[in-house]
Specification:
This protein is α+β, with helices and mostly antiparallel strands. It folds into two domains: 5-43, no CATH class; 53-184, GTP cyclohydrolase I, C-terminal domain/NADPH-dependent 7-cyano-7-deazaguanine reductase, N-terminal domain (GTP Cyclohydrolase I, domain 2, 2-Layer Sandwich), CATH 3.30.1130. Helix content is 39%, strand content 24%. The protein has helices at residues 5-18, 31-43, 99-110, 116-131, 145-148, 172-184; strands at 53-55, 64-75, 81-90, 95-97, 113-114, 136-144, 159-164. Bound molecules: guanosine-5'-triphosphate and zinc ion. Residues 75, 77, 115-117, 144, 146-147, 151-152 line the site of guanosine-5'-triphosphate. Zinc ion binds next to loops.
C-alpha cells in the first residue's frame, strides 16, 4: 500500500476548513503536516524481519507463551484507536521463533485499518507459517475507543477475541495455560 502523503496533508487542510476552522491560524498551521505524518508512520510501519527461527530439539510437551504484548490498531469503521493486549502461545515443532518476532508479527497485523477479529486471525496465521507449528493460539483483549469515547460510551467494555488452532481448543491443559497467560499479561 502506498500513501500519497502530500494529498493526505492537503485533505487535512480541507478538513479543517470543513470543520469551520481557519487552517492558517497559528495553532493549526502545521496540523495537516503532523496529522499526515502520523498516518504515514502508523500505516507505513515496517515490521522488519519476522521469521528468525532457531533449530531446537524439543523434549516433552513444550509450550512457548508470550503475554503482555501491547499494540495500537485503528478501527476501520470509525477511524478511532483500538488499544490491544495480545497473548500468543505455540507448541514448537522442531524450531523456536525469536521471541521479539511475536511482537513484530503483532505490530504488522495491527498497524492498519482493522477489526479485532482479523488482527488475531492474522497473527495466528503468520505464527503458524513461520514456526511450522499447527498448535498456535492467539488471544486479543481490546479497548475500542469507538465504544468508549463515542457511541455507546461504555468505558469499561473490553473485547476478547481468540484464534486458537490445533490442540489448543481441545486440550484442557493448553487452554488453561493460555487463559492464565492472558490474565498475567493484563498487569
Ligand atoms: N466485530 C467488530 N465490530 C467492531 C469492531 N470495531 C468496531 N466495531 C463495530 O462496528 C459497528 C459499526 O456499526 P454501525 O451501526 O455501522 O456504526 P455506528 O452507528 O457508528 O455504531 P455505534 O458504534 O453503535 O454507534 C459498531 O457496532 C462497532 O462497535 C471490531 O473490531 N470488530
Ligand atoms: Zn469503531
Amino acid at each position: 500500500m502506498t500513501m500519497d502523503i502530500t494529498r493526505v496533508e492537503q485533505l487535512y487542510r480541507e478538513l479543517l476548513v470543513a470543520f469551520g476552522e481557519d487552517p492558517d491560524r497559528e495553532g493549526l498551521r502545521d496540523t495537516p503536516r503532523r496529522a499526515a505524518g502520523f498516518w504515514r508512520d502508523f500505516l507505513g510501519y515496517d515490521a522488519g524481519r519476522t521469521d528468525t527461527a532457531f533449530a531446537q530439539e524439543i523434549t516433552g510437551d513444550h509450550l512457548v507463551l508470550v503475554s503482555g504484548i501491547r499494540s495500537w490498531s485503528m478501527c476501520e469503521h470509525h477511524l478511532l484507536p483500538i488499544d490491544l493486549g495480545v497473548t500468543i502461545g505455540y507448541v514448537p515443532a522442531s524450531s523456536v521463533l525469536g521471541l521479539s518476532k511475536l511482537v513484530r508479527i503483532t505490530e504488522m497485523a495491527a498497524r492498519r485499518l482493522q477489526v479485532q477479529e482479523r488482527i488475531v486471525e492474522r497473527i495466528a496465521a503468520e505464527v503458524m507459517k513461520v514456526t511450522g507449528s499447527a498448535d498456535v493460539a492467539v488471544t486479543g483483549v481490546g479497548h475500542h475507543l469507538c465504544m468508549s469515547m463515542r457511541g455507546v460510551r461504555s468505558a469499561g467494555a473490553r473485547t476478547v477475541t481468540q484464534s486458537w488452532h490445533g490442540r489448543f481448543p481441545h486440550d484442557p491443559h493448553l487452554a488453561a495455560r493460555m487463559l492464565s497467560g492472558t490474565s498475567e499479561g493484563k498487569s
